[in-house]
Amino acid sequence: MTTTFPADGIQPPGLDKILWPTVFQSITDPVCILDQEFRLCWINHEVGYDTRIGGICYQVFRGSAGPCPNCPVRRVFATGTACVTEKWSHRGNGTPKCDEIRAYPVNNGDGGVGLVVKICHDITARKMVQERRLRYLESLAQGFSQLTPARGTCPAPASRPDLPVHLSPRELEVIRLVAQGCTNIEIAGLLAISPHTVKTHIINLCNKIGAADRTQAAVWAARHQLI
């Protein structure tokens, strides 16, 4: 059964006259309600409902002959369950834009999905931060790979009197293995000590060198040519 709204996009039947404008009209993100034919039954003010209601979604917004390959609306109609997806596009000025698209089914009264509510939220800023962080981590990993030999293969010197702080021979072994990316369990196996003892050594050496975590300890080790 296909559920349709009046062409002017007024309140759909069955929705409370007070809740309708309060709930949907107050949402600042773009909101669409579509039927099984991908017809735009209602659009909020963010996407110009006055000229687009009644049109086919993919024709109105993309000028295409069919839905997007990963169309969340089609997925909801097929599965009957809500879904969330992300989509990159470009703004009018050519800058990239990423939307989080959430699609929710609306029961048609006989157990099927008659309508889908689609809400788009701009997450471009968040995605840009994530990508910058990922690039930084990749760059850091590449730098370590160039400085670091095979994990667990470098014997540590018995002492390093030139270091700004004194580390015991065992602490030198531990920090070198930390800088090579070894886990506590791996370090314990290589040094024939318990993981708890490894953890204690890491805490002690971090306190000595002023490192807040393993990453800072590894950077300190690389800076002082311990790897």
Quick description:
With 227 residues, the protein is of the alpha+beta class. Helices cover 41% and strands 17% of the residues.
Offer a few descriptive terms:
227 residues; alpha+beta; Beta-Lactamase; Arc Repressor Mutant, subunit A; 2 domains; five-stranded antiparallel beta sheet; 9 helices; 5 strands; 41% helix
Helices and strands in order:
Layout: H1 19-25, E1 31-35, E2 40-43, H2 49-52, H3 57-61, H4 72-79, E3 83-90, E4 96-107, E5 113-122, H5 124-147, H6 169-179, H7 184-191, H8 195-209, H9 214-223
Antiparallel strand pairs: 1-2, 1-5, 3-4, 4-5
Word description of this protein:
The chain is α+β, with helices and mostly antiparallel strands and 227 residues long. It folds into two domains: 19-124, Beta-Lactamase, CATH 3.30.450.20; 148-223, Arc Repressor Mutant, subunit A, CATH 1.10.10.10. The protein has nine helices and five strands. It has a five-stranded antiparallel β-sheet, sandwiched between helices. A hairpin with a 5-residue loop joins strand 4 (96-107) and strand 5.
